[in-house]
Write a structure and sequence with these properties.
With 582 residues, the protein is an alpha/beta fold. It has 3 domains: 3-173, Rossmann fold (3-Layer(aba) Sandwich); 211-374, Rossmann fold; 377-568, Rossmann fold (3-Layer(aba) Sandwich). It has helices at residues 3-21, 35-43, 55-69, 81-84, 87-96, 143-161, 211-221, 239-250, 276-279, 283-288, 304-312, 342-350, 359-376, 386-396, 409-417, 439-447, 459-464, 469-475, 504-509, 516-522, 533-543, 558-581; strands at 25-28, 48-51, 73-77, 100-106, 132-135, 167-173, 227-231, 254-256, 272-273, 293-297, 317-322, 336-339, 401-405, 425-429, 453-458, 479-485, 526-529, 549-555. The strands form 3 sheets. The chain has a 6-stranded parallel sheet with strand order 2-1-3-4-6-5, sandwiched between helices. The protein has a 6-stranded parallel sheet with strand order 9-8-7-10-11-12, with helices on both faces. Strands 14-13-15-16-18-17 form a 6-stranded parallel sheet, sandwiched between helices. The model has no long low-confidence stretch (mean pLDDT 94). It catalyses: isochorismate + 2-oxoglutarate + H(+) = 5-enolpyruvoyl-6-hydroxy-2-succinyl-cyclohex-3-ene-1-carboxylate + CO2. This is 2-succinyl-5-enolpyruvyl-6-hydroxy-3-cyclohexene-1-carboxylate synthase. It is an enzyme of class 2 (transferase).
Amino acid sequence: MNHTEVLTRYVTNFVDELVANGLTDAVISPGSRSTPLALTLAEHKEIKDWVIIDERSAAFFALGLAKKSKRPVVLVCTSGTATANYYPAIVEAYHSRVPLIVLTADRPHELRGIGAPQAIDQIKMYGDFVKWFHEMALPEAGTAMLHYVRNKAASAYYIAKEGNQGVVHLNFPFREPLMVDFSFNDVWEINDISCTSPILPTFEGKKHLPKQQVEEILRQLAGKQRGVIVCGPQTDLDFPVAVTKLAEKWGLPILADPLSQVRSGAHVSDEIIEGYDALLRNQTVREKLKPDFIIRFGAMPVSKAYSFYLKQHQDALQMVVENDEGFREPTNNPTTFIFAEPTIYCEALANAGVETTSKEWLQLWKQFNDIAKKHLNDQSDSEIREGEAIRAVMDSTPNQSTIFVGNSMAVRDLDSFFWKTDKQIEVLANRGANGIDGVVSSGLGACAAGVRVTLVLGDLSFFHDMNGLHAAMHYQLPLTILLINNNGGGIFSFLSQADDKKHFEALFGTPLHIDFKYVVHMYGGYYVHAKTEADVKQKLIESYNREGLSVIEVKTNRDINANWHKSKWQAIEQEILEERNR
């Protein structure tokens, strides 16, 4: 068997085993050393291959696709610095628990460390941000080698999605010549055995607490009347129904993060408090809402005001429910961690037949929530504000749709202006490491899962990833972008840095002074500028009936926007305090 046949059977069996385990999508960055993998992934009839030229964009594209599809996606690149460009998205995938299978091509061992071109140390280069690293063996002939590659492929797919999902990294050293030949007989199979997969199907149960532990938790909660359920970022679409039933049964308010998937859907109920970020900004109000216990599901909420709430009430009994492992509690408050499948846990508590709270407690939260929504919903006759642009998105977005939101101000405005609705809207974001890089590519990756996506982001996030728009043009992906352009870093206007008038604009405001319509046109997209809330709504609706990329730009002023938000929060605080003092 010659070199080409050995190489071909090696990579075809590896790729075919990924498909046998469930792989459907591969994101490929062009290069020479990765030729065997790239050609084989493109050749397999059951894989959709996406060719993204820029490796950083490719990695974030795969991240968005995996996040939306909820299954592992393969990433492939050549050797050298191409592999390093995957790093930011791998960090994000680790922290947000998204399954990626990273396949990096490499020089063979004899070409490492001697000055060969495009050869860097790729062994465990992503450090602890991957769940598993494996240096693949050089291709050899024989059935044992084909068993080996299938074993590693099956292991990679399983490890990426089991437990806390994440990244696996396999490094492939290849000798030249690099071309493969699919004309060999039975090239996708191990010829001398009837079962092509060396790893049989795996069966994995879901974690639940035994009856004795549920009873112990109930004993700890006994007599505590002022409880709060907190739902942070998570992507399980079955969870909202279960947690809402628990809240209804126990009479508890749900502080629902916009990324919790709890604010929208047929399950929505009065127990959901979506205005809590505005409510908890005042210390006196936080004291009036002092809890006896907190049960949190998902990651830490976006709201900084909620973190103030936790720090002010460190004596409250706090329980954090995690699917598998991890200790996500950044305030370092005393916390009981419960490792169980959240839906099963909610059902267990709901079926316990225990009422732990008073009607007055829940009514207080509802009353305050109504005050917050009243002020946040006030209409403005002047030019559009950023929060009003978010309101327009939520009013216009159709049922059964997806919103991908950028970090910084965009996700915080979504937190403030996303009212609960019976429309089913999945909300996604890169909130693992909370960076502004790669957001355009991640939104397009979510589109690649076969849905129209509305991407909401600021001008700096857009600028950071403009080359990600090439995928929209190349694949005609159905993406609507609401670009909120305040000419810089709007979130810094809310922070203490804004008081430094000498250096603020250069170091924090960072105005771009870019006319983005030329960028959109360069990538074949449709561009329009909207000036009012009604205008944004209309142009969003029109975009949903248009193929390909549509960008709706809203231009705002950072200082005016900050003052507008602060006036809203002050009005809410004033009415709540006046109401409680009557």
